[in-house]
Amino acid sequence: MTPNARRRLRAPVIAAAVAALSSAAYQEAAAARDRRRFPAPGRLVDIGDRKVHLLDAGHGTPTVVIVPALGDSVLTWIRTLRALASETHACVYDRAGIGWSDPPARGRRTVGDTARELRALLDGAGIEPPVVLVGHSIGGVIARRFATRYPDMVAGIVLIDSSHENQSRRHGVHGFPYGRSSYYRRALKRQLRILGARRLAAALGLLRGLDADTDREVLAEHAAAYRAILLSTRQRRV
């Protein structure tokens, strides 16, 4: 390769690297601003090595504990929480790395880990058993694992469109039921979020699906915080 050819090749590589670094810096600065703008609506409960965000309302027993779906924060359950609070004490929480909860330690995580964290959360928050678990999607798997490990703490389980423990074996890559192409599209979207490209597209009004999702999932008073969470790099799979 001639020196001129090497220079021509080097220029777009450098430009791409500069663009990526600028985009990543934009993402981190915007995410830090969002954390200041939107304080946790609930309480941060110390579970030993970190804090987990818990939102609760109402009075009575047994306490209803909502275990959200993959990537869902407490904001998607506020309507349900308020309805339940008219009858009994109810709560919903952000799993590790979701919403306002601290991220977990690095390394592979299991459903057993999330069940133990839920136990630590209930203990730390002073929620007396037995509780009724409401598990949505992957939350159903966590609820069942919790009930298996701590049967004396569970008065009942409600499953809402629950995932299954053998889902990854039945459906392929990482449990996504729509095949490899869906998995890779999701992976690409995550990388774009890390680089800030998705946040920039949202700021330019190019993500109409994001607005529709926000309107469908949360109350208007929480729309801005919900969008900030969706555009955050802190989201974890479990």
Q: How would you characterize the overall build of this protein?
A:
The protein is of the alpha/beta class. 49% of the residues lie in helices and 14% in strands. It contains nine helices and six strands; from the N terminus they run H-E-E-E-H-E-H-E-H-E-H-H-H-H-H. It has helices spanning 3-37, 78-85, 111-125, 138-149, 167-171, 180-195, 197-203, 208-217, 223-230; strands at residues 43-46, 51-57, 63-67, 90-93, 131-136, 154-160. Strands 1-2-4-3-5-6 form a six-stranded mixed sheet. Helix 4 (138-149) links the parallel strand 5 and strand 6. Helix 3 crosses helix 4. The longest helix is centred in the N-terminal third of the chain and has 35 residues, at 3-37. The relative contact order is 0.15.
Q: Quickly count the helices.
A: 9
- In total, how many beta strands? 6
* Radius of gyration based on Cα positions: 21 Å
- Amino- and carboxy-terminal Cα gap: 48 Å
Q: Which stretches of 5+ consecutive residues score pLDDT under 50? A: 173-180
| Shape label | elongated
Helix amount: 40-55%
* Mean pLDDT reading: 81
Side by side, the strands of the main sheet go 1-2-4-3-5-6
SSE run: HEEEHEHEHEHHHHH
